[in-house]
Amino acid sequence: MTILLPRDRAGADTLRQSLSWPVFQRLLSKLIDTPVDLALPKFKLVGEYKLKRPLSELGASKAFDGGHADFSGITGSRDLVIDDVVHKAVVEVNEEGSEAAGATGVVFVELIAVRGVPLVVDHPFLFFIRNRRTGDVLFAGQVNHL
């Protein structure tokens, strides 16, 4: 998980609006591997998104149109049409780690006490859950209420 904590306590919206993929990549390239003593509040975000309009705008409108949809490979006839596509995402962070849509992360702590740089997340922030191998962003969000 990557956390972007703005210096300004009310700056999460501004940070999100100014963040582009090239800016995010540049920020990531400047990260250095440093132990941190993290104080992060528990949070749970649930989002549900209806995708009919965005998918139609991306060129999949025929799947939603009874006159053009062809799912005969599924039913053997052309009497099937998609009414809507709904995506639901859940991200939860607690003392045990993080869980995002069924993928669980485990937080390990070294038994040898290593003092890290204190990082207290006590105001709105952005977070990104990324694939460790590829760096791809799997989930992104903004926490406003702590």
From TrEMBL:
Record keyword Repressor present: no
Keywords, ordered alphabetically: Glycoprotein, Protease inhibitor, Secreted, Serine protease inhibitor
Main location: secreted
Keyword Glycoprotein tagged: yes
Annotated Gene Ontology cellular component terms: extracellular space
An annotated Gene Ontology molecular function: serine-type endopeptidase inhibitor activity
Ranges of residues in domain Serpin: 1-145
Subcellular localization(s) per the UniProt record: Secreted
Family to which this protein belongs: Belongs to the serpin family.
Protein name: Serine protease inhibitor
Organism: Amblyomma americanum
